[in-house]
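Lab notebook: predicted structure, single chain.

Context: the supervisor wants predicted structures on file for every construct in the current expression panel, including those that have not yet been purified. This is the next one on the list. No modifications to the sequence; it matches the entry in the shared construct table.
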Amino acid sequence: HREGFVSVEHLKRYTTLGMATDQGKTSNVAGLAIMAAVSGKSIPETGTTIYRPPYVPVAIGAFAGHHRDENFHATRLRPSHHWAAEQGAVFVDTGLWKRAQWYPRAGEKDWLESVTREVKAVRSGVGFCDVSTLGKIDVHGPEAGAFLDRVYINTFSNLAVGKARYGLMLREDGIVYDDGTTSRLAEDHYFLTTTTAKAGLVMQHLEFCRQVLFPEFD
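Prediction complete. Output recorded below exactly as produced.
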């Protein structure tokens, strides 16, 4: 007040009383009382600040909109999901996907017993795994191979057309970031697979590398 801030709006801006979680609904009242006392006026004479919206209490869900309940975290299902559910599969959330972890049978005490049975069945016979949840990224361009050489610790520029190779992707600090197989479909065309949970992040990483780190690649 001594510095020339004589308006209640000055008080609000100078002290930031109108900010934070209560938006001045409680703190401004105390501030106005202090300002009234300093100026020798009553609170009605001093006036009140202009309220920020919302003027009345609003449920937090109104701000969230549709991003709540089931819509807060989208769920994607594999082509074999319903079949797996009918077989009693125990599912795990991986990224946006529901993936079957194991298929318990009556009398089995825990997951290890179920998994041991499944492993024995595959090793003595045959088994299949639905990996359609893996991330899938197309990389095109005359320098696609050289670009992938920079992204993975493996060399992909010498991969023969029609062949696939396992690739390991590291972070800048050397920690494993992701892995997957890469197939060369043509001289300038590669098809990458990523882990289910990291598909979106790997795509962002590749775009960052292409646009920022290695913009010279076509």
